[in-house]
Design a protein that fits this description.
membrane; mainly alpha; Permease_MalE; transmembrane; transmembrane helix
Amino acid sequence: MDTQAPTQNILQRLYLGAAAWLHSWWRLLHFAVLMFSMALTPSSYARNKRPVLAHHLVADTAPNLAWYGVLSALVSLVLIRIVVVTSQSYGLSRFALEMVVRVLVLELIPLTAAAFVALRTTLPAGLEFAQRRGSGAATIDELHREFFPRVAAGIFSVWMLAAVSCVTTLILAYLSLYGFTPWALTGYTRVVGQVFNPAVTLILVLKIVFFSFAVGLIPMASSFYAGRSKVSNGLSDMVRLFAVMLLIEVASLMGNYY
């Protein structure tokens, strides 16, 4: 029985799949370079382009900030209470604050903020925009008018949600542990400062920045290219986005704890 033909078919499929995978990542890199070059170009912030940019920044950030602020505050209160009660039951109350800061502020909030913006705004907006555009190459004016404001809004939304939620969680942690008293503020700031050493702070900032780039760029990259199935683009964008976010999270964990 000749097995050469099936083997060649398998190798050919593997080759075509690997080539398509590399090509999709190359196109994403090309789109990212275009967007970053526009971000550094003064004409992208000209007077006639500011209203569109401002509209997308507000429309994509304000609703997410309201919903995510409430949800993250409720979840943070529950998790803080769980950590405090568990620490007290094991006689580790002095480590409760550090655990809250590390688990919530360093790990959960940046990841959930990026996922919230992706699922609520950038992925649906990218798919809808791709279906509305149809086929055809994008012009320079369309890049400035349509693509760049949407990408910038997705990036800015992740920054705002992560920053506001981190500050809110730190305030809720203080109130949950010490109540409405200013006398514990010195010890609280000392513990938080020990957690946020320069290396950890840099890793947190870089993680939020890379999360925001992934959330802002990946859903809009497919809309830049023509001749693709919109449904498959939406599914592949979701898989690619969360794969990149997982890699960023793993890299941050290795930087913080190894």
